Amino acid sequence: MxxxxxxxxxxxxALVGGLxxxxxxxxxxxxxxxxxxxxxxxxxxxxxxxDSVHYSSTPPPTISAHxxxxxxxxxxxxxKVTVELQVQDRGGHWRTVARGSKVIKQGGGSSRRANAxxxxxxxARTKWRSRVDVDIIGVADSPNKLTTPAKSFSCGA
Length: 157
Known about the structure:
Layout: H1 3-16, E1 33-37, E2 46-50, E3 54-55, E4 62-70, E5 78-88, E6 94-105, E7 114-119, E8 125-136, E9 146-147, E10 151-154
Antiparallel strand pairs: 1-2, 2-4, 3-4, 4-7, 5-6, 5-8, 8-9, 8-10
């Protein structure tokens, strides 16, 4: 459904603007996960954002996650946004199975987000999560990464 990602970006934008908002009642997944990051330089603190790990809408069966950043005071700054898809092994450790990155302006939406995808290998029940790292180009920032909540899917890595 096309309206849901737009609603998620709208919710995240409201959070950056200092408003308090809840996901719309019709949303079947929680809103984006956001994390505030402070840094020094010409751009004030920013929010790292990512959606929940999910099945991709395009075949073959694939797990996907997106990441972006938000800052109402960013001007024309760009950032390298990296998304890591991770699976949990039998020992409870997380390992990265796919990575994607993109240099983007803040905002989210289909053209301003990075994506990581992994085609399913079988249908073993597997726990997935994503980690999003935002590095503002030319500005020192925190090494912190956003980790989205784990979700289980019948999709092996």
